[in-house]
Amino acid sequence: MFASQTKETSKMPKQKTKSGAKKRFKLTGTGKIKVAQAGKRHGMIKRTAKFVRNARGTMVLDESDAGIVRQYMPYHRRKRRKAASTPTATV
């Protein structure tokens, strides 16, 4: 028999992450979506210094937008919190 015939196959196909989403978005430790600030690709001359300064770094997406992004990234779900270990009493 061929190796492909003896191998068990999964019943459902794997979901794919959108390649554009995995390049643009990251998850924080609490499960929120982190994204770079918009509006800094070109045209910095006409922007105010305050705008350029405030647009540095990253921001956290609003939950309404984050829900859309989570659909694009099926395997980047919130991490489960570990249960607090209870100390066992020793006699």
Automatic annotation (TrEMBL):
One of its GO terms (molecular function) is structural constituent of ribosome. PROSITE patterns: RIBOSOMAL_L35 (PS00936). PANTHER family: 54S RIBOSOMAL PROTEIN BL35M (PTHR33343), LARGE RIBOSOMAL SUBUNIT PROTEIN BL35M (PTHR33343:SF1). It comes from the Bacteria. Residues 1-31 are annotated as: Disordered. Pfam families: Ribosomal_L35p. Residues 13-26 have a biased composition (Basic residues). Keywords: Ribonucleoprotein, Ribosomal protein. The gene is rpmI. The keyword Ribosomal protein applies. This is Large ribosomal subunit protein bL35. Belongs to the bacterial ribosomal protein bL35 family.
